[in-house]
Specification:
With about 200 residues, the protein is mostly helical. It has helices spanning about 15-25, 35-40, 45-50, 95-100, 135-145, 155-165, 175-180, 180-190, 195-200, and strands at about 70, 90, 115-120, 125-130. The chain folds into two domains: about 15-100, no CATH class; about 115-200, no CATH class. The chain starts with 12 loop residues before the first helix and ends with a helix.
Length: about 200
């Protein structure tokens, strides 16, 4: 994970998402999941959310070739007043959104620092920065485990595949930085631009 900056909401958001959402909440102040599903106005913002964040998942920092999904960072059933607020939306892959569920223990990509998460190469596993204090490392590890960033082989293999493609010259650094910013940052931080082929024994 890397820090994600909140992007401004698009001009029609208030009319198309917030206002109908508030009307619904006015009549149903504490909706359950089934009621929310029938009034999922946030899906109207998905294309704009994908465009605003350049298609990069807030949690995996990897490009989503489809539109992904709208994650409510603060779960909508626990915080209904935030269900239709742009500032509570995070672009997320459908798989990781389902894994996150209604967890309140996940670190917010809008509030983390860039040096909190490190990538171990060549295992492609994400680690907490060993220089951080114990409490913060615990929260980072809880986030990694809760989201399945290391336990889900799909995420690990994708990270390795992208690094190998970069090492083989199939993709350039600009492409890597745009679509896989965490990987691009880690290659530079670890000064591995010219060593990846050797590390992966290519």
């Amino acid at each position: 994970m890397i820090r994600v900056s909140l992007k401004p909401e698009y001009p029609d958001f208030n009319m198309r998402v917030r206002q109908p959402g508030r009307t619904f909440l006015g009549a149903t102040p504490n909706p359950n999941s089934k009621q929310f599903k029938r009034k999922n106005y946030w899906t109207r913002a998905l294309s704009e959310l994908h465009a605003a964040y350049a298609g990069v998942c807030a949690y995996t920092a990897m490009y989503l070739p489809d539109r992904g999904s709208v994650d409510h960072f603060r779960p909508k059933t626990a915080f209904p007043e935030l269900a239709y607020e742009w500032s509570n939306f995070r672009l997320a892959g459908g798989r990781i959104n389902s894994t996150k569920g209604n967890s309140l223990d996940i670190l917010d990509p809008f509030e983390i620092e860039d040096d909190w998460f490190y990538l171990d190469i060549p295992s492609c596993l994400i680690r907490a920065n060993s220089n951080l204090d114990k409490a913060l490392k615990g929260r980072i590890n809880l986030t990694i485990n809760s989201l399945g960033l290391n336990s889900d082989d799909i995420y690990v293999q994708e990270r390795c595949n992208i690094l190998i493609a970069f090492a083989q010259g199939q993709i350039g650094h600009d492409f890597l930085k745009e679509r896989y910013p965490f990987l691009a940052r880690e290659i530079l931080r670890q000064e591995l631009l010219d060593q990846l082929a050797t590390i992966f024994k290519l």
